[in-house]
Amino acid sequence: MEKNKEIVLSGIRPTGFLHLGNYYGALKNWARMQYDYTCYFFIADWHSLTTHADTRELKEITRRLVAELIAGGLDPDLCTIYAQSDIPEIPELYMYLNMLAYKGELEKTVTFKEKARKQPENINAGLLTYPVLQAADILIHRAHYVPVGKDQEQHIEMTRNFAERFNHRYGEVFPVPRAFSYTEDLVKILSLDGSGKMSKSEQQMNTIYLIDDDDLIRKKIMKAKTDQGPASPDSKKPEYIQGLFTLLGLVSSPDIVEKFEYDFNHCQIRYGDMKKQLAEDMIRFVRPIREKAAALQNDLKQIDDLMAKGAAKARISAAATLTAVRKALGFKYH
Ligand code: ATP
Ligand code: MG
Question: Do the Cβ atoms of 304 and 75 come closer than 8 Å?
Answer without folding.
Answer: no
